[in-house]
């Protein structure tokens, strides 16, 4: 198997946590200090730090120090497009599910 597929699988494993998805969404808007992220994400500081470390190791975010604060920013702008594509896939799945539910309702009404 070409190395591409395991690399893609590892990327998706990195993204496979709600806290990391939310961090990336926020960083897609603009850079954030850690205290700002904590204010917008329901996670303990130690837990958030672990998720940020995973994202750093994956090369998706970077940290810097500004005015004594640790600030995170998105390192790979294409992550924003990936997150938007994920939303589009979910939207299509929900639409398909809604259409199926409507079809089932119509079939039950016809019985």
Order of helices and strands: HHEHHEEH
CATH superfamily of the largest domain, please? Answer: Winged helix-like DNA-binding domain superfamily/Winged helix DNA-binding domain
The geometry reads as: elongated
What's the number of helices?
5
Largest sheet: 3 strands, antiparallel
Estimate nothing, just give the exact number of structural domains.
Answer: 2
CATH C-level of the largest domain: Mainly Alpha
Terminus-to-terminus distance: 51 Å
The Rg value, from CA coordinates, equals: 19 Å
Number of strand segments: 3
Average pLDDT over all residues: 93
Name given to the CATH architecture of the largest domain: Orthogonal Bundle
As laid out across the biggest beta sheet, the strand order is: 1-3-2
**Helix-strand makeup class:** alpha+beta
Plain-language structure description:
The protein contains five helices and three strands, in the order ααβααββα. It is α+β, with helices and mostly antiparallel strands. The protein has two domains: 1-75, Arc Repressor Mutant, subunit A, CATH 1.10.10.10; 77-111. The chain has a three-stranded antiparallel β-sheet. The relative contact order is 0.12.
């Amino acid at each position: 198997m070409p190395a591409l597929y395991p690399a893609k699988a590892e990327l998706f494993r990195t993204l496979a946590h709600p806290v990391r998805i939310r961090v990336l969404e926020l960083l897609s808007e603009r850079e954030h200090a850690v205290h700002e992220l904590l204010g917008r994400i329901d996670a303990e500081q130690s837990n958030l730090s672990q998720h940020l470390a995973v994202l750093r190791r994956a090369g998706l975010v970077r940290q810097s120090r500004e005015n004594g604060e640790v600030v995170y920013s998105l390192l790979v702008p294409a992550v924003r497009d990936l997150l938007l594509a994920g939303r589009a896939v979910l939207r299509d799945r929900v639409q398909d599910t809604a259409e199926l539910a409507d079809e089932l309702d119509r079939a039950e009404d016809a019985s």
